[in-house]
Design brief:
By secondary structure, this protein is α+β, with helices and mostly antiparallel strands. It folds into 2 domains: 3-124, Sandwich (Jelly Rolls), CATH 2.60.120; 176-283, Arc Repressor Mutant, subunit A. The chain contains 10 helices and 7 strands. Strand 4 and strand 5 form a beta hairpin. Helix 3 (150-170) runs antiparallel to helix 7, helix 4 (176-187) packs across helix 5 (194-201) and helix 8 crosses helix 9. This is HTH araC/xylS-type domain-containing protein. Residues 178-276 form the HTH araC/xylS-type domain. It holds the Pfam family HTH_18. Keywords: DNA-binding, Transcription, Transcription regulation.
Length: 284
């Protein structure tokens, strides 16, 4: 059932199920994220066989066709949301309407079916605990509505979860670059040095940067900063988080350093970017 926001007297089209048996999936008119905590599930998705074992995640669009044939000691949780939930900005929340064009693009590929594997993202051993932690907090916010910013925090965690799943899907091999990409995508909010990255890749900094330039068009640290700014831009546009909170969520130790680096990279301050991006999202 959609949630009634007790702070702003509106309906928020999200739902969290702490016990998901997968028998009614997919939910009509909603996108769904299903976290498999233990056990396994087998069946067909859009007439193609699937098999998912814990720890795992799968993503369902509203028009997917899922048939579950076998469940073995399954324990799962789900978060579902109306596609219009991706359209909202903080401005739209206060004015109680939706822009006509979706604004949040992070993770949308997970619900598109050009390729079957988008429904079942690749999950690494290091990524799952982080994903599950974010998913747990997201679910807690849906159920508790701890303060008037609960929708803002749900968007934050949803952006982070969808973004990480999308990034993991793009990494398939185990080259030094893939190892470092995996590390960056799951640790970008922490303090990371070039030495940390070379130690992960087991190559020297010259080799790592050369490989990154060939693959990504950035040095290793350049890619890290680019990824941080990508997440920061989403949080600036689609949440009401303070600059200090966004700095902490994207690996910048201080908001003053974040503001300086963001301004150099984007050619405008984070506050100006937030104002401009919201205006564009509202009127496009």
């Amino acid at each position: 059932m959609p949630q009634v926001d007790r702070y702003k007297q509106r309906t928020v089209n999200v739902e969290f199920s702490a016990v998901e048996d997968c028998s009614a999936l997919p939910y009509s008119g909603r996108f769904s994220l299903i976290f498999i905590k233990s056990g396994s599930i087998k069946g067909t998705l859009n007439e193609r066989p699937i098999s998912i074992s814990a720890p795992g995640v799968f993503c369902l669009a509203e028009d997917d066709e899922l048939q579950v044939n076998e469940k073995d000691k399954l324990a799962a949780q789900s978060f579902s949301f109306h596609p219009e939930f991706l359209n909202t900005t903080t401005l739209a929340e206060t004015q109680d309407y939706f822009p006509t064009t979706p604004s949040i693009q992070t993770g949308r590929s997970l619900f598109q079916r050009e390729h079957q594997n988008t429904a079942i993202p690749r999950i690494t051993e290091k990524a799952y605990p982080l994903l599950f932690e974010w998913f747990f907090v997201l679910g807690t916010e849906v159920l508790a509505q701890s303060d008037e910013l609960w929708v803002c925090r749900i968007k934050k965690y949803l952006i982070q979860i969808l973004g990480l799943l999308e990034d993991l899907n793009r990494v398939s091999a185990h080259s030094p670059v893939d190892v470092v990409l995996d590390y960056i995508h799951t640790n970008y909010f922490k303090k990371i040095s070039l030495e940390d990255l070379t130690n992960r890749a087991h190559v020297n900094r010259v080799t790592l940067n050369k490989l990154f330039q060939e693959r990504c068009g950035y040095t290793a640290i350049g890619y890290l900063l680019s990824h941080r700014f990508k997440i920061a831009c989403e949080l600036l546009t689609h949440t009401g988080m303070s600059l200090n909170d966004i700095a902490g969520a994207t690996g910048f130790e201080y908001d003053t350093y974040f503001i300086k680096q963001f301004t150099v990279k984007k050619g405008m301050s984070p506050t100006s970017y937030r104002t401009t991006s919201r205006r564009f999202a509202t009127y496009q």
